[in-house]
């Protein structure tokens, strides 16, 4: 099936593109979308077949689980075992934005994001196109839009050059700016741990939490 690219700087094309992307996600197909860090390749988080197709498109195995993007603060309540105060504080301070949090996922969820060991990495991106799509279709499994080992795409053309026809819909939101990854904070243990420092500094995380944080 041929891919279609939509120019989200054009209001009509943006509307058509978001509708096409929503249809693709609901049908278990892959889409590329702009985020506030780098471009992402995404799919329905609850479709194991779609997540497997995403990993295949990236030439990546299940040993690196796929993060989940959400369109609102409250979406995570149904996805995790519980939302501790540390998570609430970080969400209020940095969402939408460049901070991902790792929490135990709700055991009732039927999803397969890779070898997650019972956890899920969640983020709410600061990008209007991404947020509109997420609010329409719900949580999406989203990874950087690149083939494993190559540079993450900072625009839709770079993403298409790497991923080609494996993706049904490309949403072109212009250049993503500096390709800075999100900061990842693991909240599954007694002490918050920064697994990767990116857009948000470890010092900023510690300041919001009012405590020391470990660095992996």
Helix content: 25-40%
Oligomer: single chain
CATH superfamily: DHBP synthase
Order of helices and strands: EHEEHEHEEHEHEEEHE
Q: Tell me about the largest β-sheet.
A: 11 strands, mixed
Strand content: 15-25%
Rg value: 16 Å
Low-confidence stretches: none
Q: Mean of residue pLDDT?
A: 92
Q: Tell me the name of the CATH class.
A: Alpha Beta
Number of helices: 6
Query: How many strand units?
Result: 11
How many domain units?
A: 1
Main location: cytoplasm
Organism: Pseudonocardia humida
Catalytic activity: L-threonine + hydrogencarbonate + ATP = L-threonylcarbamoyladenylate + diphosphate + H2O
Keywords: ATP-binding, Cytoplasm, Nucleotide-binding, Nucleotidyltransferase, Transferase, tRNA processing
Task: Walk me through this protein's architecture.
This protein has 216 residues and is α/β, with parallel strands linked by helices. It has one domain (4-215): DHBP synthase (Alpha-Beta Complex). It is 29% helix and 20% strand. The protein has six helices and eleven strands. The protein has an eleven-stranded mixed β-sheet with strand order 1-8-2-3-7-4-6-5-9-10-11, with helices on both faces. A hairpin with a 6-residue loop joins strand 9 and strand 10 (193-196). It is globular. It catalyses: L-threonine + hydrogencarbonate + ATP = L-threonylcarbamoyladenylate + diphosphate + H2O. Its EC number is 2.7.7.87. This is L-threonylcarbamoyladenylate synthase.
